[in-house]
Amino acid sequence: MKTARLLLALVLVSTSAGAPVRSQEQRPPAPETVPPIRVEVDLVNVVFSVTDRRSRLVTGLGPDDFRVYEDGVQQQISRFTSETDLPLRIGLLIDASNSIRPRFQFEQEAAIDFLHTVLKPGRDQAFVISFDVSPAVVQDYTDDPQDLADSIRNVRAGGVTALYDAIYLACKMKMADGTGNDFRRMLIVLSDGEDNNSVVSRDEALEMARHHEVTIFTVSTGAPPISYNAETARMQNPCQVKGAEGDKVLEYFADSTGGLAYCPFTTIDVGRSFEQISNQLRTQYTLAYTPTNRVRDGAFRRITIESRREQLRIHHRPGYYARLEPAGSERP
After folding, report:
1. Smaller CB count within 10 Å for the chain: N or C?
2. DSSP string spanning 120-152?
């Protein structure tokens, strides 16, 4: 199968996890259409964060500040917490193409500091994938920040960019277990967003992330979209101003999965971007509801959360796939 051959490309380089695996010579074939992931849902948990119009995180809100809808129908919030304690499953995707060389070492160290800060041993786990010609697992799931740090420092820049393949395969192979009720599953993508070698399309990569309820955060390695000066230095997030085409791609992935896109001005700001992601993970809310639509038709249920307060933006996963009732079976 074409999909199996594409996955095999990543499996082969994964066997040397922890070592800097580099370019693969053969270009993998295009994948087949991905079947939906179906999950039985009695209680839907949604992890989300809130920002104001300047992209600053907003805390101190309660259940009365929100309304939740499923496919346009308002739902009753049955549980709400101001801090989520769901374990983390983090994939760090590092662009190792030639285009990101200028700030590469600074970005590596910022990513290492982030993992040291966020991961709780025995509870959270992370893996590392580097990508240029094709993606390569350089460290499989572990809760040891030092193992992750060693693998990140061993990545060397060089080659073209297969960003979409990296996102697709990271979600397909590393984020398939459990549901959004079990883990907070996220990818941190460190890249300039300029894909020029992927087999899968941007939308195929996004759909795979949605199937596995993965939130994507991006940190741009490209040139900042606007000039750095006294006025722009006060901006919380330069991605608010459209920059290069690659930055738009990164923002597309983040916005479409409930994450955030960061466009650092300087090498120092790269570290601040990771710090902002860390802060967001600490200030996420969780709400839960029992869906009014109990039909098990395998359809995608779209979730919308609205704030009762003005000028606030809610970041959350777009929805989930309902369980598909087997043919001939009856629900008790």
Report:
1. C
2. -TTT-EEEEEEESSSEEEEEEEES-HHHHHHHH
Residues 182 and 73 in one domain: no
CA distance from start to end of the chain:
38
In a domain, 252, yes or no: yes
Reading the block at residue 183, the tokens are 């883990």
Domain housing 74: 44-83+284-321
Helices (DSSP H) in 24-126: which residue ranges? 104-118
Residue 197, token pair as written in the block:
């070698």
Q: Tell me how far apart the alpha carbons of residues 51 and 60 are, in angstroms, rounded to a whole number.
A: 12
- Compute the distance between CA of residue 302 and CA of residue 94 in angstroms, rounded to an integer: 30
Bridge-partner residues for 261, per DSSP?
Answer: 218
Which value, in Å, is the radius of gyration of the alpha carbons in the chain? Answer: 20
> What is residue 20's predicted lDDT score, i.e. its pLDDT?
43
How many CB atoms sit inside 10 A of residue 287's CB? 21
Task: Convert the pLDDT of each residue in 240-254 to its tens digit.
Answer: 555 678 888 999 999
Please give the tally of structural domains in the chain: 2
Residue 270, both tokens:
């790269």
